[in-house]
Amino acid sequence: MEAEWLEALPRLRQLVGDRNFATWIEPIRCSRNGSGLCLEVGSRFFQEWLTRHFLPTIRQALTRPDGTVPALRVAVSAEETHAPAATAEAPAARARPPVPRAPRIGRLVPNYTFESFVVGASNEVAYQAALAVAESPGCRFNPMFLWGGVGLGKTHLVNALAHGLLARPPRRRIACLPAEAFMNTLIAALRQDQMGSFRDRFRDLDVLILDDVQFLAGKERTQEEFFHTFNALHASGRQIVLTSDKPPHAIAELEQRLRSRFEGGLIADIHPPTPPMRLAILMRKAAAQDVDLPAEVAALITQRSGPSVRELEGALTRVLATAVLRGAPLTTALVETLLSPVAPVAGLLSVEAIQARVSQHFRVSVTDLKSHRRDRSVTFARQIAMYLSRTLAEVSFPGIAEKFGGRDHSTVMHAVRMVEYKRTHDPDTGQLLMMLENELRTRPAPSRAE
Ligand code: ADP
Ligand code: MG
Asked: Does pTM top 0.85 for this prediction?
């Protein structure tokens, strides 16, 4: 490895923190590239993430005494994407005996694939992470913990991941099932005194995908068994993928040791789709049924259905079914009769609701949030509230500036950038934001003041 890189590592660790260091910096292989350096990483997702979130910090750590910085290139290493290739020193060490065809545990939904998944701002990180895991399971993002509200595509995405794994060699043993099914199988095994075969089944897997792990809350015996399953798989480099409707720390009655396992890998969240994504999803679903949906009809359906994709699909099904039953054309008039208007702010929060929650959390009054006070405690709370107003309420920068005491919109832009940076570099800020976002989303938003 390059001496210049090795020297910079301790500084980098300080700058990004231990956890980020282990996940994002340690796996990098660095080689000389002319007068600069080439940073080799294992997947395209890793490459994008690193470039987007850590490159400025890496540059900072690599700054030479004369103030110059080596030119950096971030490349995907060819070997790693096709793991597990044998290494020169240990030719057969990683080669596994041929995998016998094993009965798969759990059933996959055939059309929940990557191809049928519409990608946009609200789910891009989760999508990229799932692709990366499908490319090289058991490598970096292990476990992968995917969370988000009901009907936002978690089950779709993990099914797509499983299809992706099955589509390419080597043949892998995959289990993809709801946590509830895991529990039921466990209970049956306990009753029939067949724990041996239960353990063989679940520990002899290459990939375990457990959907809706929030279901394990309060189920102590199942948690205990799952803890051991998790450890057995994880210790031998097998991939674990979990989904949940909330982040690990917000799952009540989950043993601390499981929570910390869940938090030990990559956590990705899915948000409700933006209006353009909703339209794209609707068109995709209609096309899958060979229906030519007029644009104005599609637009009206997206406006008149709830925030989740499942509700959007439900609305489409209702409209299509009625059109067929009545032999009626697909018009906006038909949609008007079937779907009543929903509050236009469905899924979006008001800036006032965000200010109120942030003020409560930081014990800073809303008046102070809107004021020009510059003490650190107030400034940080204000920046968080501005960031959430941008991401959850989707209000424009000038719009937010106005609601925070009529300041300049560049202040808001700066605040949002600051918080974005802290979110990826400081685990505490990351945790805090996840908690606030989750609470704000799950609690019914107070109606808008105006
Ligand atoms: P969750 O598991 O998060 O509750 P699902 O994966 O069951 O949600 O998704 C609900 C429905 O919405 C499914 O029919 C799924 O295909 C669809 N869906 C969700 N997100 C997308 C997306 N981004 N693109 C296409 N379909 C989606
Ligand atoms: Mg689901």
From this structure: no
